Amino acid sequence: MTTTNDYSPGLEGVISNATTISYLDLDKEEIVIRGYDLIELAQKLSYLETAYLVMHGKEPTQQEAAALRKTLSDQATLPPEVYAMLKSLPKQTHPMDALRTGISMLAGYEDPAILNDHHPEPNFAKGLKIMAKAPVIACNAYRANQGQPSIPADPKLGFTENILWMINGKRPDKESVDMLDMVLTCYIEHELANSTFTARIIASSLCDIYGAITGAVASLKGPLHGGANEAAAQMLVDILQKGGAAKAEQYITDIRAAHGRIMGFGHRVYMRKYDPRAFLLKDYLPRLLHKKPEGEEMYAIYRKVEEVMFRETKLYPNADYPIGFILYLLDVPIPLFTPLFLCARIPGLIAHVEEQHKENRLFRPRVIYLGPRELHPEKAGAGR
Amino acid sequence: MTTTNDYSPGLEGVISNATTISYLDLDKEEIVIRGYDLIELAQKLSYLETAYLVMHGKEPTQQEAAALRKTLSDQATLPPEVYAMLKSLPKQTHPMDALRTGISMLAGYEDPAILNDHHPEPNFAKGLKIMAKAPVIACNAYRANQGQPSIPADPKLGFTENILWMINGKRPDKESVDMLDMVLTCYIEHELANSTFTARIIASSLCDIYGAITGAVASLKGPLHGGANEAAAQMLVDILQKGGAAKAEQYITDIRAAHGRIMGFGHRVYMRKYDPRAFLLKDYLPRLLHKKPEGEEMYAIYRKVEEVMFRETKLYPNADYPIGFILYLLDVPIPLFTPLFLCARIPGLIAHVEEQHKENRLFRPRVIYLGPRELHPEKAGAGR
Question: Which of A76, A114, B76, B143 has the fewest CB atoms nearer than 10 Å to its CB?
């Protein structure tokens, strides 16, 4: 058995690095982003304006915001070989794995001298390409899974609008675009989440930003991280199919009795406080229920699960709980929830990779060794 | 500016986790692998025998070693879509990036239920598939880069022999196979290297082993990590082309004067002691020089650079320095040096992912925030 006297499992409470990007202030219950309250940003700025702030540490002027929008629009294309790769994947491939493969593949399209230049300007230029192309990969990976033809980004549509467009080829209504935009902003940056930590560690070997973000996609797929929004929505659907709100309490009780995990509740850092993002977003739920015939019933399930979970565990919802439900109401397919979380987080990842490369120190901690010592081989001799 | 009073940059000296896999014992100058001295293992066991030990914590019987060899041979195939992806990559794609993309892509070929089952048996089964297929991807990514046709693994050849076979389609001599086998063993596992740390962090979100190893490939590409063997060999070639051993001292002096970095010397953990792997391998160099016409001259360069570096910096070579030269003498193309390091490390990565999944705690450290506070947005208004 391991002892925990000499280290903190999961590096809980350990300081990994200094940053000027973001901070979870538990005392003030504030997600600080470059000095601003994320909740205020989500209400007052668009996702792209917030993205500029996250990456550059200042609000964009109108010209700067317009330039960012144009760069992302210009770069929202994929080489035909990436489309071909997506179409060649087995149909069971999770879009998150397809997104990881696609971002990894894109590294080869950079001139190697630029790929390995970790100064701010090339890092931001490469990062914006990844940010522009990631939703195109994600949505079209899903479409390829479904045997549907690709839908490229439409240069006439904005960044957020294009995401909904590429999912199903329908022009989205303003209410849906505004709601998704706020969701993307809520996901944009969150201090040293597991995926952000992954990106910084990879960047610290002086690997390039494509590698760092590829690793972050891998991390974010995990159900203890980004995979939670998918799991939370899937649970609501399961309860709906098994009898609706009247069955919600039994459903939760059964899973907990079997030591199963209910996703979308609690958070390592917030512990027993309300995630400010979940607190903001829950108020938007009632006005979206009309978008699906089952909206009202699922909202009843949603509230019942929250009530039971709080009564039984004293855990509040985290951002993934309302976001899973919102994306469902916006008709986003569940397998795209985690990929869209990743897409939304890219400005934060770019900022962290840039900060890591600017003042780098290779991440290389040590271990406590609890295995045997002083053994010597007896040659088994089965060769190589 | 950051202060370093409250944290250790790069987590230097911080304990990240307990392990029974390996430990760098600086007092005894020993790389402990499951209780054994790695240097003794490299001299007495084959790479595959050591791989079994790393993964399972015990030496294999002859039957177990033979079974491992058979599994790896059976699994050393690639889906045609992966070959097609490799051939579709831009020619400038580094084989390390191609290997990362290929391993990521393979996740889709697992049944999702098995992909997301993190118990030991499915984890080892998936890990061995990655171990078997990684050299096939790496060698054939390089061949695709060169416009050469693919060479699949030959089921009649052993694991190590197949690597040399797939590079150039020539039957390798026993001396080369034995030497490469020892190099692979030296690279097999090394406590919490940046790539191993990356794999554990990704695994801790309960992402699957394909994601964890994909992230490790990204990390290992960095020149502060696996990229060093490529850089070290490239330096020797550069010096040869610029006048040979007589110019070596000036070459090193010039780079150091320009604050450039000489790769292959020093190591975060060993600091000012000799890396035991480099100490072992340097004695094998003289007997390999006959393999290349320029062997003797490069060995003179090799020794001169080591002498100058020790005189000027008191740094000893790390494993990447002799290994870079050995792989060059074995006619392995330089762009494959880092991919082969990754392939060699896979048993260690499998063991760490398995250990992380067995007793998991999500990695999620904190930061020191040094940015501004109490800012409020002025709506720029360029929309989304």
Answer: A114
